[in-house]
Amino acid sequence: MRLLPLIVALLACFSLARADTPSVVFDDERYALSFEDQATLPDGEPGDGIAEFTLAGESVDNWSKLFAFHAYPEMGDDPVAAVETLGKIVKENNKDANYAIITNDESGEAMIDFLTWAPESDVMEFNVFKYARSADGRGLIAMQFAQHVKLGELDVDGMRALRVRAVDAMAATDMAQAQAYFANKRSTSASKAPEEREPALARAGRDD
Questions:
Q1: Which of 20, 96, 138, 196 is surrounded by the most beta carbons within 10 Å?
Q2: Summary count for the chain: helices (H), strands (E)
Q3: How crowded is residue 49: how many other Cβ atoms within 10 Å of its Cβ?
Q4: Candidate CATH numbers 3.40.1000, 2.60.470, 3.30.70, 3.30.110; the one for domain 23-187
Q5: What is residue 73's three-state secondary structure?
Q6: What's the whole-model pTM score?
């Protein structure tokens, strides 16, 4: 009889842990937050940030599919320029790789998709990025979907179908969740700043 309350408590803790872990749904699959990091600029404001989400049972070190949020507060405010720059970087790293750019004049968003691979590797990586201006006017926010594809796993028609499905899914995915994620990070950073300054001010007062 004592086991029942314990099991109920454990299930409650497990459910709470899952509820507390941010997640995103992309193309009908759920990805849970596996890694996050954000730099700090010299003025104390948040710098470039990243949040990476993986499928159940996978990690950022071993994944088949990955979804990510990116923040680029110092990149400027032109999504089209951002995807054009990324396309050039892709070609610089792999001259045989190709990319496609899609722009949305109404929303101001821009997308790029590409397939690339490392020399001597038997795994290719398909990527789709979507860029938008940050809601607070500080640079750009981006979302990324990536999928590993082993050589021979998909034929030409299969790769074409993967691209169409991923690009359509990214086009339909609202940037609001990525915007909210980094807005919350900025809010948390701002709330901590006064607490971090208080000890220094107190020491200055005692020195006087």
A1: 138
A2: 4, 8
A3: 19
A4: 3.40.1000
A5: coil
A6: 0.82
